[in-house]
Amino acid sequence: MKITFLTEMNFEGKISQDHPNMRTEFAWMNALGATHSCIYNFQNIKDQDHIFIIIPKGEVFLNAVGVKLVNKPNPISELLKTKIVPILKSNNNKVHYIQEGPSWLFNDYGIIDQINFYNILSECDSIFAHNKHDVKFYQGLFPTKKINIMPTLLIENLIKNILPKAEDKVIIGGNFARWYGGFQGYLAADEFKVDKWTQDSHAKRENEGDLTDLYHLQRMPWIDWMKTLSTFKYAIHLMPTIAAGTFSLNCAYFGIPCIGNNKVDTQLICHPDLSVDVDDVEKARILAKRLKEDQEFYNKCSITAKDNYNLHYNIEKFKNTLKHQLI
Which of 150, 181, 214 is the last residue of a domain? Predict the structure, then answer.
């Protein structure tokens, strides 16, 4: 099959197994032998069996209750106005949408952008969601459309020789922003009684680095992130945003028990005993304390994470799943 992925990234070509920044979408492309092209060049894509489009998140300027803060246009408005799917279908076989970020993200767009976004999805042959929870969302929007799951994936070529060395420290899965829920994770992580770390991101808040009991990792390429992650003993990710779940999956690969959102597939499947309602900070604290004090429970969670990763997220299963979904 000839497959092309369209994203906002401005490069053309395939992803090798040795790519140092093998994040989720790159792993999908590599596993499927797909070619990548910039989404803004969509009119030049021809003779493909399957096109996967990942629409950029864009940018919104609202506060938490939806009040506009800055009078600026969404930078993807022009893209949303185009006839991208009909044009792609005229030159190729099938076109599929892959979820980017939380399913509800487009609700923060202006009304016209929301409608245009919906219309693009309605014209696709199928939709690939992140999680079972997201499938229900999209099936409600499009009752007659085929909704699949695009499983989060790791390509292990560059990380297979990393030997995990669990040091007595905890990694928190995000900064102190509503998107990541880092503040709640920081409080619950107190139960581990070890050094607390998080990674810098676009959401790092002003003065967050002033906390004397929280260390920050600088942003780094994926391969360096994986090497660094392998040195942690515990993980917690109380992120209310339901997305691809790469943090939970990365932890599972190394057997790092991770407390996290039970609506994220990688979390629930790989860390079933550590999955919580994302606002249940009380239970997250209880589980953190148990992981710290109960070695048998810790070992069980670690082994379960690795076993379920190998069972459910191996590359052959991914290929077979996609093969049947694309028939």
Answer: 150
Backbone angles phi, psi at 148, to 5 degrees: -115, 170
176 and 296 co-located in one domain: yes
pLDDT, tens digit, 9 for 90 and up, residues 240-256: 999 999 999 999 999 99
Domains identified in the chain, total number: 2
**What is the residue type of 110?**
G
Rounded alpha-carbon distances, angstroms, from residue 44 to 13, 84, 89, 208: 14, 11, 12, 45
In this structure, what CATH number is given to the domain that contains residue 292? 3.40.50.2000
Give the residue from 157, 160, 186, 181 showing the smallest Cα distance to 171.
186
Give the residue numbers spanning the domain of 17.
3-150
pLDDT in tens, 36-90: 999 999 999 999 999 999 999 988 777 776 777 777 889 999 999 999 999 999 9
